[in-house]
Amino acid sequence: MNSNTKFNILRTGLSISIALLISFGIIFLTSKEPVNAIVQLLTGPLQSQRRFGNVIEAMIPLIFTGVGVSIMFAANEINLAGEGAFHLGGLVATYFALNTTLAAGISPIMTILIAGIAGAIVTLIPAILKIKTESDVLVSSLMMNYLVLYFANYILSNILRDPKAGAVVSFAVPSVTQLSTIMPGTRIHIGLFLALIVAILGYIFMFKTKIGYELRITGENRQFARYSGINVVKITLISQLLGGFIFGVGGGVELLGMYNRFTWTSLLGYGWDAIIITTLAKKNPIHVPFAAFFLAYLRTGASIMARSTDVATELVTITQGLIILLVVAEQFLSKYKHKMIAKEAKATLGEKEGE
Amino acid sequence: MIVDAILSPEFLNAALRATTPILFAALASAIAAKSGVINMALEGILLFTALFGVIFSSAFQSAWLGLLVTMVMGGLIGFLLAFFVLRLKTDAILAAIAINLIADGATILILLAVSGDRGISSSINSIIIPRITLPIIENIPFIGAVLSNQNILTYVSLIMVVLVHIFLYKTPLGLQIRAVGENKDAAESVGISSDKIRYISLTISGVLASMGGFFLSGGYMTRFTTGMSAGRGFIALAASAMGGNTPIGSFLVSLLFGGAQAISNILQLGTLPHELVQMLPYATTLIGLGLYSYSKMKKRQRLTGK
């Protein structure tokens, strides 16, 4: 392990610790039972099988979105339409499942694929707009999210809505299309395997294929990539398409696995969660499941804490923000990094002199 | 019927009101962008300052003192963003996303601690900035009905368009900001400290956005509700981008958004499905941004002869 990797691990660990310490500080300031709250936050998810199940359930969508955004950001394109892609994925999955009758095994697969295509369209629009008109992807992708939200609200209340249900929710997706639970006593569904497969495939794509290599070169240095004969426009499009597809698949899987009815009337925030995950995973899909597990654990702990003490779940939103700020701050601990590199260099020199 | 409604002075009056928070934030975005940093934290700043406005105007029992302190807080958040971006070399977009996340959580925690409620600040007796009628102008037919009887902050936002324009284009500091944004190295070679200029720009950006935040909960509405910035910070980002990051351009595009918002408020009462009408401001931005960028691209290609 070279000093750079070692340093990255150290800094990420330290950033997380500092963010947690600040959050504990907030708990001590605002809570009447701070110790209990912290204990619940940190150990709550381990107290029962069902609670640990909640962690894994929450982890599934985070893996999809983390891998999706890692691939999109690898092209150095800040496309934030993943949020919308996930949302539309869920909507299209519901629509497709309600309007088709396919055999048991094929139905969920087709539904998830269609959801993925819907997601790919959402992230592709800002990318195409950039290529054709040079408009800023950041801004146009943010607009896409709101367009998708209101479009989904329209479809939900005018086409998919179940009038017999009290709230504004869609008809229930037929049970042949729903993803089956794999562990009794929890709601962990088969989507977990899909998510892990996506993470592995994502890793293979980015680090073991020619297109993945070209994608990373394009992200690191666009000019250089262009001069080396890489078709950067094509590579960028592929990465945005693929990222959106994975987001859409994630939306479809989440809906078929956890919801059964389309109930999303506001944006769920998975697009933003994906950013903290890719930050922790350093854009490497194979690290995404670990980062997703960490975040899911923190979330589950927070909701247990909120149920049993007077601290609100939103505390972890602050923790997440702090983690991003510290992990991304390049100069944080940079003096230490220099020392570490200098030490390593001296050691290598020493070895050579000794020969 | 819809055309009649849109041409009515009541509608234009409402459009101007809906424009106000977006306009403040768009001016904030323009100044930051002119110095070469994208301030995506506007969404979080709007949300934070909407809450601070309620808390401080109630604490001092004065809307103006509350506004003043809120502006200081907004400036501080802008400064903090600058600190992370410039001193700690954090990616400006990721730092802003972090600030927005923190705003989401922290506003709920603070509201809960201060008022005991996590949704709305009803139990805080905050003071709002009033509407005023303009003498003489109010008697002019049509124009009077559009311009008069607006919130004082709406007038302030319009004055700000002129002030920010003068600041950016007629003062030495404004020139330095534009120089740093245009070419940082060239600016540094003539002795301008680009970091200092960007600290100043982002702080001013925070102060401007905080006025929009204050207006949301102390003028446009009379209470703070969680998540009330509702994407306005992002719309403002789009408005200033589409307006070429100039104050006047940002103003014109903000008006378009305010108008779209007001149209969607009117149409929601009619027979059109309100969800589709709500898409209007965002669709307008997306298309507008595309058209604007396209014309800019063509112009550049013509100039460089490519």
What is shown here, in short?
The complex is a heterodimer of chains A (355) and B (306). Chain A is mainly α and 355 residues long.
Structure characterization notes:
With 355 residues, chain A is an all-alpha fold. Chain A has two domains: 76 residues, no CATH class; 251 residues, ABC transporter involved in vitamin B12 uptake, BtuC (Orthogonal Bundle), CATH 1.10.3470. Helices cover 75% and strands 0% of the residues of chain A. Chain A contains 14 helices and no strands. In chain A, helix 1 runs antiparallel to helix 13 and helix 11 packs across helix 13. The longest helix of chain A is centred in the first third of the chain and has 28 residues. Chain A is globular and about 75 Å long. In chain B, strands 1-2 form a two-stranded antiparallel sheet. The longest helix of chain B has 27 residues. In chain B, helix 2 packs antiparallel against helix 12 and helix 7 packs across helix 8. Chains A and B meet through helix 5, helix 6, helix 11 and helix 13 of A and helix 5, helix 11, helix 13 and helix 14 of B.
What fraction, in percent, of the residue positions of chain B are helical?
Answer: over 70%
Radius of gyration of chain A: 22 Å
Q: Strand order of the main beta sheet of chain B, please? A: 1-2
| Low-confidence blocks of residues of chain B | none
Low-confidence stretches of chain A: none
What Rg of chain B, in angstroms, do the CA atoms define? 20 Å
Total number of strands of chain A: 0
The most extensive interface between chains reads: A-B, 43 and 47 residues
CATH architecture of chain B: Orthogonal Bundle
Under CATH, the topology of the largest domain in chain A can be stated as: ABC transporter involved in vitamin B12 uptake, BtuC
**Quick one: biggest sheet of chain B?**
2 strands, antiparallel
CATH class of the largest domain in chain A: Mainly Alpha
Q: What's the total number of strands of chain B?
A: 2
Return the average pLDDT of chain B rounded to an integer: 88
Secondary structure class of chain A reads: mainly alpha
Shape of chain B: globular
Q: What is the average of the pLDDT values of chain A? A: 87
